[in-house]
Amino acid sequence: MSTVNSPSFDNHELVVFREDPKSGLKAIIAIHNTNLGPALGGCRMYAYANDGLALDDVLRLSRGMTYKSALAGLPLGGGKSVIIGDPATHKSRELLLAMGDFVDSLGGKYISAEDSGTSVADMKVLASRTAHVSGINNQQKYGGDPSPFTAHGVYLGILAALRHRRGRGNLSGVKVALQGAGAVGRNLISLLKKGGATVFASDVNAVNLAQAEALGAEIVDNARITTLDADVFSPCAMGGIINDDTVDVIRAEIVAGAANNQLAHPEHGERLRQRGILYAPDFVINAGGIIDVYMQRANGNQLQSEAKTKAIGDTLTAIFVRADKEEKGTAVIAEALAEERFLLPDGQRAVMRAS
Ligand code: NAD
């Protein structure tokens, strides 16, 4: 496993591996860029088939955080961590304490938060060993799970995409095919149903599907979700859903969802454009969570999180307009906009200044 030769390396400032046989911890922390501030990003726990896949995942996710925070207007850099192991069987208090020590060893260059496979409760265990954890506010009415804010941002992003394409940003008569009825997906289903949309949902988890159905979604086979006759396809499960197998069969006019790294490869974004499908870049539309986690750390409040999340729709509209004008994919334009914000004037990236 070579880090710098990984296709996802992209000038990361720092990539650190930790193996602790006593607790069973095997983890990687990746810091992509800290020009705008310390690298804040979630800690994912997943049963990767091999270490190379874990490295690739953490590098891609970490890079995405740099772009996401820059476009959300946050004074943050991009980073991410992964714990290699099945959260259902491999997670223990000792392992989480060891992860807390690992995060602490970087002295604040990386700030952790919850992600797939970890919870607010897990982050509180990390926080007993390090101050560099966010998203665990103990305030009664504000704090903890950021997924409602992520869902709200995605909802506003879907409205912005509809407005851009159809001149009206409302959901009456709009059909949404949503994959992944997890924490974000279910919050999004509620918002979409309230807004008047018809929602079709798929998942691989029967319990989550039952909850989606209770919220008013019509359940469809997961194998059919990408080809459904819908106006909007909303990926809210795992990354890579826009790939060689799906990019030419998606029937929706808009792709807008919460999942990170939806495009298996940048070319799939261009293919969507060629097919006339408007893609809301994932790292723009799903920024509600990082906004909220940042606000919790900055001792902000719910109103401030909501106000900043509302700007996601405007940012997307600016990206859609520029992409049309320049006849380029929306992800390409979004990356260029982010780089205008986080790259140093000489284009340099690798300056570790946060502490
Ligand atoms: P979650 O784990 O609560 O939900 C994910 C759901 O997807 C689960 O119901 C799971 O069963 C389902 N799923 C997994 N693999 C699937 C597959 N192959 N086909 C269909 N369904 C599948 O996660 P979440 O917090 O809701 O996050 C969803 C996505 O959004 C993830 O990609 C996450 O990285 C991204 N995201 C989440 C947040 C947040 O605030 N939680 C913020 C930004 C991005």
Question: TL;DR?
Answer:
This protein is α/β, with parallel strands linked by helices and 355 residues long. Helices cover 42% and strands 16% of the residues.
Q: What proportion of the residues is helical, as a percent range?
A: 40-55%
How big is the Rg?
Answer: 19 Å
- What is the C-level CATH assignment of the largest domain? Alpha Beta
CATH architecture of the largest domain: 3-Layer(aba) Sandwich
Which structural class do you get from the secondary structure elements?
A: alpha/beta
Strand order of the largest sheet: 8-7-6-9-10-11
**SSE topology string:** EEEHEHHEHHEHEHEEEHEHHHH
Number of domains: 2
How many helix segments? 12
| Distinct bound molecules | nicotinamide-adenine-dinucleotide
Question: Explain this structure to me?
Answer:
The chain is of the alpha/beta class and 355 residues long. The chain is built from 12 helices and 11 strands. The strands form 2 sheets. A 6-stranded parallel β-sheet has the order 8-7-6-9-10-11, with helices on both faces. Strands 1-2-4-3-5 form a 5-stranded mixed β-sheet, sandwiched between helices. Helix 8 links the parallel strand 10 (254-255) and strand 11. Residues 350-355 have low confidence and may be disordered. The structure holds nicotinamide-adenine-dinucleotide. Residues 116, 146-147, 150, 179-185, 202-205, 208, 222, 236-238, 258-260, 286, 289 line the site of nicotinamide-adenine-dinucleotide.
Label this structure with key terms.
six-stranded parallel beta sheet, alpha/beta, Rossmann fold, 355 residues, disordered C terminus, 12 helices, single chain
